[in-house]
């Protein structure tokens, strides 16, 4: 592989060769611009005719205006001076200085510059073909003095020539692929693709050749198509399942000096079923207790398979040693182990050991069509003796007993035996959860079931109990058996009417008319079925009003003997009837049929059965009258309640004079404010209703508002009534919008005028009891003498 310095030297040589070519060819290929031919006789360009023989043909060369097609410039050229791209020339340029070359178009003035006098075009910048491959420009010759065009403009192209400056790249790498193990040589694995940004047309800069740098001798690559193929036979996934392949793409056709790029490919071998299952050992031994439940695991075997996934799955089967089908073996989907399970119970006393041959089979291998992969192993099973519970002779017993049989009657017997070799004695018990009423007992030694209570078939026809059996001395293993006891019927119930009949007899009925059809029921259930005999009681055999008729279907019809029944004479009749069954012994009962005499229509439809119907208005029944009476009573109650509520509502709230109380405590639903509430109302106002000039200050409004007395509200000094005063103040408070409704406790202690003693209230007392002198009480007269003595005694006691 060439080094980077060699590549740079190669690029330098190519640049020098191109420069020499440009220098040696001063003009580019010409094509006509103007399309006009000129005579060569002007401009010093005409051929001289002297020296030509007479008669010789005068030859002339037709010259055209300045012409060209396209120019080339090398990419990535970075010399010290601008590179000469080409030269424009016109035959108008004969050395005069009055013409000028002008360049326009893509990159004119920035990338490309033209010498106005000589027409030389230079590239001012380093160009990259991968960015832009060609530029389209326009050239024109104009007068240098007047800038007038001398010829029409002409378009030309500058193409950027490619050099090998871009290495190949694998844009989609690194790659991953897979191939089946044991694949044949030449099997295609995958295809990789590299790209080169160089010009695929010019030279070999983009011609790629692929090779493998790592991964041989397992894989190969096609140098042109980059297809990766298997290069080695019998690659086994179980030996190695993954390979790393490094692929190189080199341009310049793979020759020295070309650039290269690499990528990696990870190849994974896909598993095929090419390995048979193999048991880890040839002999397995298990000990299984004989009481192992069915379906439970008794042991595990394992056949290993070097394959992977589905190819590693094996199927297990028992091919020898299990003629009775006691065992089965299934595959665990997670561990691929063979699980040995019981299909039938084991019995140590019957068979103590088993020898099985187990086979593990794999599916048909993909590369072989001859046979299955399989392997076998031997499994020896030893049955371990367990203390088994007793075994009943039957899993279920069916017993019968007559109802009302006496207590201790034997219903039946259950038996169980110990299957173990010890043959222990068995004891029997009744599971009382199945015999909550304790109607049965069982003998613990022989299993005889007896009655503990009388049974009634009409209450319960069947009794299902569970009997348990255990060994003597070992109550852990328990066996159970179901005992179904059927209660047999005896004739112990008398027949009775099927329902409570109530017959209706029309007054205008005819003799022999059927009044009621009667049937009977019996709780007993005789085998031969029911047959009932009906008859009237002996006292009614010659009943003048009614008789009975057997319908021959266990029912009778009650018939009327005459048509003279009247409600006014007798409204209701009672007819006793004896019903007897055919059991042994026969049972009978007396049932009474109630017959009501009713008024009927001509068609025999019952209309009324009450005597009161004669006194009721036509068209109204007793029920209708009761409903009308109830509505009237309800209306009266509503009116009384309404009047009572109106009277309570209109009752005045003003206290009468005889109910007036001078000292009141007004209680509000408020906790109060302590000292502040005592000042909510000035008690001095009531004690001195005259006030000061009729002005009464208020303390139940805001302090900053002064309530001025209104004209006409001054009370006279004489005849002041506290009740009137309070009403006036109440009226003022109700009509004063500035007075808030402060809650307060107000005590009125005014006792009126004319009392010698003055006020007895202690509200104005400013001194304590110890500072007061009560001697003045004796001066008030004989009425207060006793009070003065009491206070004097109290004061002397305190001093003592």
UniProtKB/TrEMBL annotation:
Gene Ontology cellular component annotations, sorted alphabetically: adherens junction; axon terminus; catenin complex; synaptic cleft
Pfam families in the record: CADH_Y-type_LIR, Cadherin
Matching SMART domains: CA
TM regions (residue ranges): 614-643
Topology with respect to the bilayer: Single-pass type I membrane protein
Signal peptide: 1-30
Matching PROSITE patterns: CADHERIN_1, CADHERIN_2
Keyword Cytoplasm: no
Chief subcellular location: other
UniProt keywords, alphabetically: Calcium, Cell adhesion, Cell junction, Cell membrane, Glycoprotein, Membrane, Metal-binding, Repeat, Signal, Transmembrane, Transmembrane helix
GO biological process entries: adherens junction organization; calcium-dependent cell-cell adhesion via plasma membrane cell adhesion molecules; cell migration; cell morphogenesis; cell-cell adhesion mediated by cadherin; cell-cell junction assembly; homophilic cell adhesion via plasma membrane adhesion molecules; morphogenesis of an epithelium
Record PANTHER family: CADHERIN-23 (PTHR24027), CADHERIN-8 (PTHR24027:SF273)
Function summary: Cadherins are calcium-dependent cell adhesion proteins.
Name the record gives this protein: Cadherin-8
């Amino acid at each position: 592989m060439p080094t980077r310095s060699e590549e740079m030297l190669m690029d330098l040589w190519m640049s020098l060769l191109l420069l020499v070519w440009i220098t040696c060819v001063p003009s580019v290929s010409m094509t006509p611009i103007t399309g006009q031919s000129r005579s060569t006789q002007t401009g010093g360009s005409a051929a001289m005719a002297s020296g030509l023989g007479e008669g010789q043909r005068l030859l002339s060369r037709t010259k055209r205006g300045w012409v060209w097609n396209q120019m080339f410039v090398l990419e990535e050229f970075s010399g010290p001076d601008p590179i000469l791209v080409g030269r424009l020339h016109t035959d108008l340029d004969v050395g005069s200085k009055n013409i000028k070359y002008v360049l326009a178009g893509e990159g004119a003035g920035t990338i490309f510059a033209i010498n106005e006098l000589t027409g030389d075009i230079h590239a001012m910048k380093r160009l990259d073909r991968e960015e832009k491959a060609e530029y389209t420009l326009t050239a024109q010759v104009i007068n240098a003095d007047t800038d007038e065009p001398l010829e029409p403009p002409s378009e030309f192209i500058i193409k950027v020539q490619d050099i090998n400056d871009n290495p190949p790249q694998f844009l989609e790498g690194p790659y991953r692929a897979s191939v089946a193990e044991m694949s044949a040589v030449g099997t295609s694995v995958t295809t990789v693709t590299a790209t080169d940004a160089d010009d695929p047309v010019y030279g070999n800069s983009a011609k790629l050749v692929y090779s493998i740098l790592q991964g041989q001798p397992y894989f190969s690559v096609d140098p042109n198509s980059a297809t990766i193929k298997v290069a080695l036979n019998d690659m086994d996934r179980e030996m190695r399942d993954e390979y790393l392949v490094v692929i190189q793409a080199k341009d310049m056709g793979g020759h020295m000096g070309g650039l290269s790029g690499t990528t990696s490919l990870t190849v994974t071998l896909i598993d095929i079923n090419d390995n048979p299952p193999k048991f880890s050992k040839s002999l397995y031994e298990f000990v299984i207790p004989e009481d192992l439940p069915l379906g439970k695991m008794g042991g595990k075997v394992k056949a290993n398979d070097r394959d992977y996934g589905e190819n590693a799955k094996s199927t297990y089967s028992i091919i020898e040693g299990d003629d009775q089908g006691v065992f089965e073996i299934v595959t665990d989907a997670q561990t691929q182990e063979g699980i040995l399970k019981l299909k039938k119970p084991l019995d140590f006393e019957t068979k103590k050991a088993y020898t099985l041959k187990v086979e593990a089979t794999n599916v048909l291998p993909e590369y072989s069509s001859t046979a299955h992969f399989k392997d076998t192993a031997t499994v020896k099973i030893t049955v371990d003796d367990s203390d088994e519970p007793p075994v009943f002779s039957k899993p279920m017993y069916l017993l019968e007993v007559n109802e009302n049989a006496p207590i201790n009657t034997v219903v039946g017997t259950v038996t169980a035996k110990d299957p173990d070799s010890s043959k222990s004695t068995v004891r029997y018990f009744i599971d009382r959860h199945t015999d909550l009423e304790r109607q049965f007992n069982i003998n613990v030694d022989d299993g005889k079931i007896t009655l503990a209570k009388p049974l009634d078939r009409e209450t319960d026809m069947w009794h299902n109990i569970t009997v348990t059996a255990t060994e003597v001395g070992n109550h852990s293993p328990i066996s159970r058996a179901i005992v179904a006891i059927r209660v047999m019927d005896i004739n112990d119930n008398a027949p009775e009417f099927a329902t409570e009949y109530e017959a209706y007899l029309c007054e205008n009925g005819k003799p022999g008319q059927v009044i009621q059809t009667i049937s009977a029921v019996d709780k007993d259930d005789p085998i031969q079925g029911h047959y009932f005999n009906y008859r009237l009681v002996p006292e009614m055999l010659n009943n003048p009003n009614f008789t009975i008729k057997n319908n021959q279907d266990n029912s009778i019809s009650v018939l009327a003997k005459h048509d003279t029944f009247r409600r006014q004479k007798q409204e209701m009749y009672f007819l006793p009837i004896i019903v007897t069954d055919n059991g042994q012994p026969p049972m009978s009962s007396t049932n009474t049929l109630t017959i009501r005499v009713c008024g009927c229509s001509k068609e025999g439809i019952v209309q009324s059965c009450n005597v009161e119907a004669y006194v009721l208005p036509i068209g109204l029944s007793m029920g209708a009258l009761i409903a009308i009476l109830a509505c009237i009573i309800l209306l009266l109650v509503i009116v009384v309640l309404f009047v009572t509520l109106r009277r309570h509502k209109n009752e005045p709230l003003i206290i009468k004079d005889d109910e007036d109380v001078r000292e009141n405590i007004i209680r509000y639903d408020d906790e109060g404010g302590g000292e502040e509430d005592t000042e909510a109302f000035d008690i001095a106002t009531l004690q001195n209703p005259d006030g000061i000039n009729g002005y009464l200050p208020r303390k139940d409004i805001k302090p900053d508002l002064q309530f001025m007395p209104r004209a006409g509200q001054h009370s006279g000094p004489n005849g002041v009534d506290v009740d009137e005063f309070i009403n006036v103040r109440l009226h003022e408070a109700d009509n004063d919008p500035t007075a808030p409704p402060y809650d307060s406790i107000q005590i009125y202690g005014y006792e009126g005028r004319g009392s010698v003693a003055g006020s007895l209230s202690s509200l104005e007392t400013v001194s304590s009891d110890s500072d007061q002198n009560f001697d003045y009480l004796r001066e008030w007269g004989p009425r207060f003498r006793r009070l003065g003595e009491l206070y004097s005694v109290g004061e002397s006691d305190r001093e003592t």
